[in-house]
Amino acid sequence: DTSLAEVNSFSPSMPISPSSMINQYKFEDEPELRDLFITVDDPESHITAIETFITYRVVTKTSRGEFDSSEYEVRRRYQDFLWLKSKLEEAHPTLIIPPLPEKFIMKGMVERFSDEFIETRRKALHKFLNRIADHPTLTFNEDFKIFLTAQAWELSSHKKQGPGLLSRMGQTVRAVASSVRGGVKNRPEMFTEMNDYMETFSQKINVLDKIAHRIYKEEREYFNEMKEYGPIYTLWSASEEDTADSLKGVASCIDKCCKATEKRMAGLSENLLPILHEYVLYSEILMGVLKRRDHIQGELDSKIDALANKKTEKDLFSEEIGKLEDKVECANNALKADWERWKQNMQCDMRSTFTNVAENNLRYYEECLATWESFLASQRVDLHVEENSEDRP
């Protein structure tokens, strides 16, 4: 399928060495100058009579003039991140807002509040804030600044303000009108192509996500069996005097391969699974953004139709149409710029992720092969020694 062709197209002149492959992409899309650095760390458990939750320390360092200080340190819980995401979507409906980890990420694979779960979420929250910080528009959002700088009570007070009644009513009316309205008549070809691309991308990335989880599950089952398999040879060696050393050698090889398998599993759970699932969420977000753009286009189309059918109040309709045309143009330009940026980041992430997985697989198989080859070589040496001792008079 050509939808992911660009992701899989590598230059013929690319170095063959895996380590040089990953280095080629490491800093490809790094911005040259940054004036906002954010770190999410130090998770802390809180237990109350009502609930148990985790807060994370958010440290911000900046040289921007609109900030009163060059460094801030606040604590935020997951609900605060959700609030920030909703405010960004509300303020920028046709921009691609980075996804947050789901409330129970990797459900069924790790326990909630386990160290692994908390660390997985911390990394995702760290990436979420830094993606916003690197975005040319979202980084200057006022709610984002408040999220980074306000103390807990200040943020709580700000959150209670919420959108005004008229704003909420307007959103509801538009949502109802959009759900009733049919397809957009005058959608530009570019956005039809985007929509087709995302439908294919969504299908492919969901399949990759499912396969990756299945691979991880099978790898874990294999690892658990290997842990039980190795000690059997050690126990066996106790009752076989003539082959005790060989049996212990097999047990040692299995143990080394078991550790290598555990290392490869860690690579899958830390690098491959989160990236694939992040882009599953991205595909949902992008489909939503395209629908919101279509809703704005639909409003314009309906006004134009109403003007054609109405003989009076033409001036009023013309003014509304002019405003809607400006709104559609702004939405189109915002989405076009964000689309190209998103595709570039996605392709870089996919290249880096799959190259990293390939490197880890190569290291894994080379390590296991070297382990068994070393064992076989030692057995051949022992065999030659025994043969030579038997030939002596």
UniProtKB/TrEMBL annotation:
One of its GO terms (cellular component) is early endosome. Transmembrane segments: none annotated. It comes from the Eukaryota. Residues 307-334 form a coiled coil. The keyword RNA-binding does not apply. Belongs to the sorting nexin family. This is SNX7 protein. It comes from Sula dactylatra (Masked booby).
